[in-house]
Amino acid sequence: MRLSLNLFAVAISLGLLGGTSAVRSQTLAATSQPWMDRSLAAEQRAALVLKEMTVDEKIHLLSGYFPNDFNGIKRQPAGRLQAAGYFKGVPRLGIPELHETDAGVGVASQGGPHVRERTSLPSGIATAATWNPALAYQGGAMIGAEARASGFNVLLAGGINLMREPRNGRNFEYAGEDPWLAGQIVGAQIRGIQSNHIVSTIKHFAANDQETGRNHLDVKLGDQAARTSDLLAFQFAIEDASPGSVMCAYNRYNGDYSCENDYLLNQVLKQDWGYRGWVMSDWGAVHSTIPAANRGLDQQSGWPFDHSQYFAGALKEAVENGHVSQARFDDMVKRILWALFDKGVIDHPVAEGGAIDFAAHAKVTQADAEEAIVLLKNENKLLPLAPGLKSIAIIGSHADVGVLSGGGSSQVYPVGGMAVTGLGPKGFPGPQVYFPSSPLKAIATYSKAQVRYADGNDIVAAAQLAASSEVAIVFANQWAAEGIDPSLMLADGQDKLIAAVAKANPNTVVVLETGGPVLMPWLNQVSAVVEAWYSGTAGGEAIARVLSGEVDVSGRLPVSFPASLDQLPRLRIDGEGMPPNTRFAVHYDEGAAIGYKWYDLKNHKPLFAFGHGLSYGSVAYSALAARVVNGRLTVTFTLTNDGQRIVKDVPQVYLSAANANVHWEAPKRLVGFEKVELKPGESHAVTLNVDPRLLAVFDTADKRWKIAAGEYRVELAKSATDIRHKVAVRLPESSIDVRGK
Ligand code: BGC
Questions:
Q1: Does residue 84 have its Cβ closer than 6 Å to ligand 1?
Q2: Which one in 131, 153, 316, 688 has a CA-CA gap of 20 to 30 Å to 386?
């Protein structure tokens, strides 16, 4: 039977063609709105709908705003609780409003009277410390589900700025100092988020590595070094996850602002890497209309943090006058449409008020936190806590009621309310938020000991409690937050507190809740040190399970901990003490030699090395072999659990250039890792295929990665400074294109 168009419509309305109403409305939409045909490629769908859009409708996608009260101006679209960003969309064409919220640990709130209580993952650096991309994926899937259920279709997650500066107040949002590890972890998290048919960003592109002067500083970094470090981390994660959007950063980069930087946005991201999504600005990072549009910015996110609505009327005028071409204007819109189709945002509209299974989500974040905790030192096997202990003193950091989190735009507010109120700045980036997951209560459930608490404000009382207990556990914290670069010395007399407790009781454990590395003047006085980072919604439970040995301690440092400030490339943070709004340059003279690469290069002995982390068990490594298969380096080895308990181990493979032809930034690079769980007596064979870019030097002139011929050394290690086995391998000369092909 051939139906005329009218008959076809009647047949549909009468249900004569069968199928569900969803199928019918899809069919209808596909006829009147061909871009709604899911069988077409995202590219085609974007092109089809673009043709239908008026100039003003295009502007609605390019120019959004912060939909909250700002400097006394109320700008909230009616009908729903907003968050960080809002775009009108084009409802008549089925293009939804964009509702954007931060960030990498979960659905954040901007504070004020209206907060959403949501599940928080451990901080980004903590997830990196798991060295477990599968966990990062699960965490991403969980927070993405909460974003969807809260009515958000863009999650401003994916922080991946490499840790060049341990004092950077946002290190907790990022994934450490190594491009391969960070790329794997953040890529997996973004994949998890986007599995919910929402967009995730990756940010802040590029080199926003300190908060001091972040809007004015000018990072100076050469092409080769950048492509081998900061940019390589982005490249790995973007290839892995295809995030719908890239957020350009606040800072200048070799002269131009990141959000009007032709090199970063047009040349590297869009041309060299072939990125197809859209570039959104950070909030307040836009400074122009014509340069920004022509140099690669696609969308202005955060007015009125910016001085003007550069991408509204001014952009329209610039297109009319030809300063921004029609083709470029359409390209800006099409990139957004492409991502919305490709990630499923248009086909799976979000709605507020979805159900969230907070109990199930707490288990996801707990699993992440448990694998994130790093045992830095453990003299006399003080940990795990002995089952027969009679008394434990818990001291400091509100460990009786909760665990700390990092502040700023990424702040998630806890389900059930904050464990402690009235702490930290009243305005942004405060307050200091403690999640109501009590380490003390959880420790008490895993131990028969009497567990007593001292808040640590009275050092003498704390020391007395420690002296009258078999073990003392001091919780020490460093609050880090967006907009502030904290000191590496613990604040509020905590170093003194730890020293006094350790003097009173040699069986002292220090549990650190920090955003990143800190200095430890008391290290030799205490028996054990645990880095618990900001451990999220179920942090107290996770810390207790690790301390009591319910699970192995399996986190490994994703950053080096310096022994002193003079080991760092910069003794002081550039711009420190300068009047606000001063423009200054930060010269990254260390090039690509970030973190452990810098320590190797300079022969510095860090306090704790990248990759370090003790286990409660024991794993032996054997049968290390390396060979080149089809031009790719493949490394194999075997792990054997030769201890008595279940362990999770993280074998790390570094490559060292034992060869005068090779001009790397530093003696060695991490080229692979795997997290493996092993039962007692169990063995496991690992095969790692190394990404060739990790063997190469980027040739800026002809934009190729070049591997020098010669002998290299493959090192199987427990950390960057604890090499267990070495084997030589000869690599032939080869080169690959800028995309690693
Ligand atoms: C931060 C971004 C964040 C944005 C929106 C900015 O201050 O740098 O990371 O996504 O605010 O809240």
A1: yes
A2: 131
Out of 45-59, 109-123, 366-380, 562-576, pick the least confident. 109-123
Residues 6 or more apart from 482 whose CB is under 8 A from it?
Answer: 169, 170, 173, 211, 407, 408, 409, 410, 428, 429
Answer yes or no: are the C-beta atoms of 434 and 513 closer than 8 Å: no
Q: What is the pLDDT at residue 26?
A: 55
State the catalytic residue, choosing from 102, 209, 256, 282. Answer: 282
| pLDDT tens-digit map of 461-472 | 999 999 999 999
481 within ligand 1 shell (Cβ under 6 A): no
% of the chain residues with pLDDT over 90: 91
- Contact 662/709 with Cβ under 8 angstroms? no
E strand segments, 305-378: 374-378
CA of 731 from ligand 1 middle (Å) equals 44
Query: Residue 103 CA: which ligand 1 atom is closest?
Result: 10
C-beta 283 within 6 A of ligand 1: yes
HEC profile of 450-489: EEEEECCCCHHHHHHHHHCCCEEEEEEECCCECCECCCCC
Residue 32 CB-half CA count within 13 A: 11
Does the C-beta of 100 come closer than 6 Å to ligand 1?
A: no
Provide the greatest CA pair distance for the chain: 92
Residues 6+ positions from 529 with CB-CB distance below 8 Å: 375, 376, 377, 509, 510, 512, 520, 523
The rounded distance, in Å, linking the Cα atoms of 230 and 221 is: 10
Considering only CA atoms, give the Rg of the chain. 26
pLDDT at 547: 98
311 CB within 6 A, ligand 1: no
- pLDDT at position 18 is 35
* Helices 179-194 and 230-241, packing angle to 10 deg: 30
* pLDDT per position as a tens digit, 600-615: 999 999 999 999 999 9
Q: What is the pTM of this model?
A: 0.95
CB atoms under 10 Å from CB of 17, counted, come to 13
Residue 15's CB: how many other CB atoms inside 10 A? 11
Q: Which of 68, 110, 155, 156 best tests ligand 1's pocket when mutated (most atoms within 8 Å of CB)?
A: 156
User: Is 99 in a helix, a strand, or coil?
Assistant: strand
What's the whole-number mean pLDDT along residues 557-574?
A: 97
Mean pLDDT computed over every residue of the chain: 94
Annotation marks residue 282 as catalytic: yes
Is the shortest distance between the CB of 282 and ligand 1 below 6 Å? yes
The residues near 731 (Cβ < 8 Å, ≥ 6 apart) are 628, 633, 695, 707, 708, 709, 710, 712
Mean pLDDT for 47-57 is 98
Is the beta carbon of 203 within 6 A of some atom in ligand 1?
yes
Query: pLDDT per residue over 383-407, tens digit each?
Result: 999 999 999 999 999 999 999 999 9
Q: Ligand 1, closest atom to CA 173?
A: 9
- Distance (angstroms) between ligand 1 centre and the Cα of 174 equals 13
Q: Which of the four pLDDT bands, split at 50, 70 and 90, describes residue 20?
A: very low
Q: Which amino acid is at 261?
A: N
Cα(592) to centroid(ligand 1), Å:
26
Q: What is the pLDDT of residue 31?
A: 73
Pick the atom of ligand 1 nearest to 204's CA.
9
Give CA angle at 555 (489, 156), nearest 5°.
80
Q: For ligand 1, say whether the CB of 102 is within 6 Å of any of its atoms.
A: yes
Which of 87, 160, 283, 286 has most ligand 1 atoms within 8 Å of CB, for mutation?
Answer: 283
Alpha carbons 461 and 50: distance in angstroms, whole number: 69
Spatial separation of the C-alpha atoms in residues 379 and 466, rounded to whole Å: 18
- Give the tens place of pLDDT for each residue, 545-561: 999 999 999 999 999 99
Q: Which two tokens stand for residue 172?
A: 């907790």
